[in-house]
Amino acid sequence: MDDVQAVRRLKRGEIGGLEILVARYQVKAVDTAYLITQDVALAEDVVQEVFLRINRRIRRFDESRPFKPYLMRSVINAALDAVEKQAKWVHFSSDKDTGELEEMISQAASVEDQVEFAQLKREIEAALANLPARQRAAIVQRYYLQMSEKEMAEALDAAPGTIKWLLNAARTRLRTLLGSERSAE
Amino acid sequence: MNQKDPGRVLQAVARDHVPEDIDLLPGILAHIEKGNRFKMKSTTKMMAAVTLVLLAIAALLVGLPAAAKAMQRLFGYIPNVGIVEKGAPIRVLAEPVTVTREGISVSVNSAILAADKTHLEYRIFGVPGSAYPNREDVAGCMDAPYLRLPDGKQLESINADFAPVPAGVNEAVFVMPCIMNTLPGKAPENWELSLKFIPAPPDLTLMPVVDIPATSQATSTEQLAAQATFTPGAVTQPVPVAGTPTAIDDQSVTVVREIETSDGYILIGEFTPQGIAEGQVEPYGEILIRDANGKKVHYTNPQDINSNLSGLDASKPYWFVQFKAAGLAYPLAITFSGYTTRQAEPGATAEFTFDAGSNPQMSQEWKPNQDIQLAGHTLKLVSISVDSRNGYSFKFKCDPDLISVDLEIVGYSNSGWGGGGGCYDGTYQRNLSYETIPTGLLTVRIANMVVKGDSLAWVGHWSPATPRTDLPANPTPQPGLCLTVDNLENLDRAPDNMANGKALVFEQLEGSDQYGLVLYNLADGQKKVIASSGNWGSLSPDGKFVAYSGPDNAMHIVDVDTLAEQVLPNASGFNLRWSPDGKRIAFVALGGGIIDSVFIVNTDGSGLRQVSTLSYEYVAGWSPDGMQLYFVAPFTGGAAWKVYAFDLNSGVATELFTIENGTPKFLNPKLSPDGQWIAYRGRDSSSLYLVRTDGSDMHLALENVGADGIEWTSSGWLGVSLMDFGTEKQTLVLVNPESCEAFQLLDVGGEMQGLFIP
Questions:
Q1: In whole angstroms, what is the distance from residue B356 CA to residue B321 CA?
Q2: Is B664 near chain A, with CB under 8 Å?
């Protein structure tokens, strides 16, 4: 069953349609939310809430548009909202700080090429953590979701010029943090 | 692994923290089942002092002249366009422009040029389905159209509008590098349409937009005092009343902008629960609006406002309503309902131990069945199992009010966790994962229990800056409009000779979570399950059979008396429609790599024939002689539908006309049995329109009634199932579109998909 049929089933009250969409996209969606929020629990909350919102509003979904970009736009915006609101929340979890995460990643591999890759991952992760959330979202959209700048502009409700600025700012910062040879280009 | 690929690196970064076998579904289903949508952790404390301060502020505001409450801004509202700046004279398109290439037409039908934007209405029809990817996860061309000015400058589009065309520039070229989402080489590219602009005609409607200062919301100290329920000086929390939560009147609900329309108002407002120090409240259900006499105000959600917030902070979650003002008494009371969540007891913890042994193995499981007391709640630890991520999965039996608890194994830092999502089916599950799985005698600490808070309601008040005096209390009904949301309650029951037959309804089956197809006897309301799973039902013309799309997507035909069922070979799809002679069925399916095009098949499974090669189509119905099949296909972008008639003899589909006012969602077009009319759902997804099959006499027949299921009877009455937005229930009504006679049939559990009245 393709997305359209899943959406139609969901529109008509069949929860099976939602099950298909969740199963198909939850990993990508949580990955995306995590890369923006830097918090797995928060990312899961964000994606769960996005799917709940989609379920509530599915009758308004325009079937002639593909579902996945719609979902990912929702996830990005919800993740950004969550980051902004996070300061207001009471934190209960015992998540690690960035330093601990870096340490874990650096210890993760044993084979040589994996060591090198793990090093890159660690640096990317640390650099991402140091970016403002909106710049993180721009990087995630451009390089992880491979969205065009026009799509990004629509998703972030920003002018294409703003997107270019966000990307440039993020790239510049990443170059500084990673070194010029390891820019995210 | 290509280390130069940042996408894969980012995926790997995420994968280090996000488990690939993540399963959010139980949590999502739990929330859906409970009908709530809260998730945040909060403590809900309402301070009476806050209310007193608001009362004091309200007292200061009393007596201010109405005109001082509002501040005119330089915005105007144009129906179907939205809010525009009034800083420059409005211009419009001199005349529509159409270009046709290879059977595909691109038209710019209208334009509004304002100081802050250029709004174009353009349509693309006739794009073959083969031009689009046949998988949703494959993207076609995404180059957006733009306007090219005479000096070569490009005005790009965002959210369907373009940047403003400078004053004095009265020509532009609408450039479409490709048709959105088509595959390379599959459809003509580089479209150019030359546009000319002229001053707007004097009768162009530009309605006033008024921004309302935050301090002008209160109406009178008497009203606020009457609705405030707090004890002065005491710290208190509103106590909800079962079914009707106490309405908190504290500026949580505010109107920030009002727009005067031809027959009423559009309100734009904010819902920001006040006095909740931490956490979040999310609304559920619908906004309830009553006027000063207690009359319920029916409203719609204006479709042209949502993405167009000129002058407002677009990051805020505004609400929008549009309603008619005739006969209303002010102020209106606008009520939101919602839930809070709260930490059961900050700082409370509990612990339990278990011996994982020196070498725990995958799927190894312990069943402690141990009661754990935390913050006045009992959690029963049912099981602990080793999972695939170097960790453990903990399952608890839980209180339905539980939202979450946090777990940690004392002395170990987890690298990730999963689960949560509330108490689903009486079970709460939480996983902890580690770089290296902890072993031996382990102590697990539980803390931070978050539980469902109160069901609350918040009310705000609004009066127009200048109340309308030009609207009659009982306006003359417009021709052809048979039913409105305001006169639904006055409908008589259908007489016996009409309440005689059967209705096929898609609804949740009694005593089950499943949805299926149920046949109602209109005379006594008795019902019979036709299919316990399946959808898109269609009742045969003689009422003896039901065709439906099964969970396997195959087409099933059921004898409604014996329930004998056959599955048609070679036919799978949905949106089924019987031919008048009952020998064929039209349906929509994925075929030839095209998403959702129309097919015909004989009821014995033979004679499968593809009718159209467009995409995302719906069947409207068969002509009385069964030789013409009517169907609709959307404009690329979804805002309009083209109606086609396929001639079974010639095999040619003819373009008939365009529906511009239909919902871009589920149009549900239905052809009348005499082949004269098509009924369909309106742009608001709630009204019903009628149009003749030659495109003439298009008119509103049922206004804002929640129209969902649409079926014609053989004698030309229109059967419609009307949604109650608060529940899944629907009411079946019969309307004679010629005389506007209307009757109520019965209440059912979902959308009507078939109607047979002999």
A1: 58
A2: yes
User: Rounded to whole angstroms, how far apart are CA atoms B405 and B345?
Assistant: 11
C-beta separation of B578 from A26 below 8 A: no
pLDDT at residue B403 in the model: 76
Residue B690 has pLDDT above 80, yes or no: yes
Alpha carbon B235 to its chain centroid, in Å, reads: 39
Per-residue confidence at B621, pLDDT binned at 50, 70, 90? Answer: very high
Judging contacts by C-beta atoms under 8 Å, the chain A residues touching residue B18 are: 27, 30-31, 34, 40, 43
pLDDT, tens only, A137-173: 777 776 667 666 656 655 555 554 555 555 555 555 5
Q: What is the pTM of this model?
A: 0.63
pLDDT, residue B65, reads: 30
Asked if B508 and A13 come within 8 Å (Cβ–Cβ), the reply is yes
The band of A102, judged by pLDDT with boundaries at 50, 70 and 90, is: very low
Question: Which residue(s) pair with B365 in the sheet?
Answer: B385
Residue B257 buriedness (CB in 10 A; 0-12 / 13-18 / 19+): buried
Contact B74, B298 (CB under 8 A): no
Cα separations in angstroms, B219 against B61, B238, B758: 8, 22, 56
Residues 19-38 of chain A with CB under 8 A from chain B are 19, 22-23, 26-27, 30-32, 34-35
- DSSP symbols for B435-469: SS---SEEEEEEEEEEEEEEEEEEEEEE--SS---
Name the nearest CA neighbour of B556 among B520, B587, B525: B587
Asked if B417 and A40 touch (Cβ cutoff 8 Å), the reply is yes
Identity at B159, one-letter amino acid code: N
Cα separation, B31 vs A145, whole angstroms: 28
pLDDT, position A148: 63
Q: Which residue of A has its CA nearest to B449?
A: A92
Nearest to A2 by CA among B23, B574, B556, B667: B574
Contact assessment for residue B140 and residue B182, using Cβ atoms and an 8 Å cutoff? yes
Could you give the angle at the alpha carbon of B283 between the alpha carbons of A71 and A46, nearest 5°?
Answer: 35
ipTM surpasses 0.90:
no
What amino acid is encoded at B662 in this protein? Answer: G
Strand order in the sheet with B742-748: B492-493, B742-748, B730-735, B718-723, B707-712
Question: Are the C-beta atoms of A156 and A163 separated by less than 8 Å?
Answer: yes
**In whole angstroms, what is the distance from residue B619 CA to residue B630 CA?**
6
CA distance to partner chain A, nearest, from residue B285 (Å) = 10
Query: Do B39 and A8 make contact, defined as CB atoms within 8 angstroms?
Result: no
B350–chain A nearest CA distance, Å? 14
Going by C-alpha positions, the residue among B311, B305, B259, B318 that lies closest to residue B159 is B305
Helix residue ranges per DSSP H, B473-575: none
Element (H, E) at B155: strand B154-158
The verdict on a CB contact (< 8 Å) between A113 and B142 is no
Interface of A with B in 92-111 (CB under 8 A): 92-94, 96, 100-101, 104-105, 107-108
Please state, in angstroms and rounded to a whole number, the distance separating the CA atoms of residues B541 and B758: 10
In chain A, % of residues over pLDDT 90? 2
Query: What are the pLDDT digits (tens) for B692-735?
Result: 999 999 999 999 898 999 999 999 999 999 987 656 688 999 99
Question: Which residue in the block uniquely carries the two structure tokens 């070679």?
Answer: B570
Please give the Cα distance from B27 to B23 (Å, whole number). 8
Q: What's residue B31's pLDDT?
A: 65
Q: Does A132 touch chain B (CB under 8 A)?
A: no
Whole-number Å distance between alpha carbons of A178 and A125? 10
Residue type, B668: N
* DSSP H stretches of helix in B441-571: none
**Cα–Cα distance, B471 to B451 (Å, whole number):** 49
